[in-house]
Amino acid sequence: xxxxxxxxxxxxxxxxxxxxRRVLAALDLGLTFEEGLVGGAAYAAEGHPLPPATLALxxxxxxxxxxxxxxxAFDNLDRALRPEQAVLGLRKQLGLFANLRPAxxxxxxxxASALRPEVAGTIDLVIVRELTGDVYFGEKGTRTTSAGLRxxxxxxxxxxxxxxxxxxxxxxxxxxxxxxLCSVDKxxxxxxxxxxxxxxxxVAADYPDVALTHMYVDNAAMQLVRAPGQFDVIVTGNLFGxxxxxxxxxxxxxxxxxxxxxxxxxxxxxxxxxxxxxPDIAGQGKANPCAAIxxxxxxxxxxxxxxxxxxxxxxAVAAALTGxxxxxxxxxxxxxxEMGEAVLAAL
Length: 347
Ligand code: ATP
Ligand code: MG
Fold this sequence. Notes:
This protein folds into 2 domains: 1-97 and 264-347, Isopropylmalate Dehydrogenase, CATH 3.40.718.10; 98-258, 3-Layer(aba) Sandwich (Isopropylmalate Dehydrogenase). Helices cover 40% and strands 19% of the residues. The protein has a 10-stranded mixed beta sheet, with helices on both faces. Strands 6-7 form a two-stranded antiparallel ribbon. The protein is an alpha/beta fold. Helix 6 (160-175) crosses helix 7 and helix 11 (307-322) packs across helix 12 (336-346). The structure holds adenosine-5'-triphosphate and magnesium ion (MG).
């Protein structure tokens, strides 16, 4: 019986994770659930945003369904104790190096996109972002230049194994979709990107069924808003992926609709909505639970190999929307619970 660790966290996290849990439970897959404290909720109860019991639960579970962390009440804590540290701690503990962010516009939500409706309707892609390397984790510091000026520096570095393993996730993801992979880099000016491109090309030999293209990141940013329909799967580094995935999410509509996965190559992963704890609407029953429910669908697909069940959940979300359910972020008055009910009814 697969064990799912539920880490609801703060703000709207518990509200949306509960709807996702109900959807998972309704599938009759014999899943078991165990809840853990994380974020501000964990700090309040145990004095740490990621208590040992939560780490142990995440280790033991087959997959983690995460809500959101962040609570303005804890903004003045030392950095190491802030709720947001829990996400970094879990990523590190579980060795999560690949971040998958699908961006897809559900039918009827064209108005929620930052793009013109006819362009928005064509967006259906996945960004595979590397999570453990790049400029965020290279050597960094400040020094004084020969002219006596203060200078900050952050080293952008990738080794070939780091690129190889994320490239494989990109190819596998493309293989499971329509078989097109676009590798995004800045190989005309960056050494890391030269290496990136060499390694991606080498890995491509193992995936003759996937059509590989390369694009410079500046062009990719432009193409994402000009003609997003050209993309199926994008694989890119940590920095470029950070920026492009936020850009793609606004093209795909409300922040309340978008799921994500963080994977470590063993099938195990942590699945969470891309939105935060939204303290401004917490406890009011206004949060859109679809991002959490679609994260649960990704969990079924990537960690449990339950592709058919994942398809059913995604189709049920689409059907609920087609049936007219709209939470406040989508311009309606459907509550969190009612949206969950609409998805359950469609299931
Ligand atoms: P973080 O730093 O954790 O990303 P944030 O403050 O940047 O948090 P969110 O918590 O995602 O961002 O909130 C941004 C805005 O989007 C808020 O106005 C919030 O109410 C809204 N929002 C976020 N998630 C949802 C949701 N599921 N349903 C409806 N509105 C949402
Ligand atoms: Mg944010």
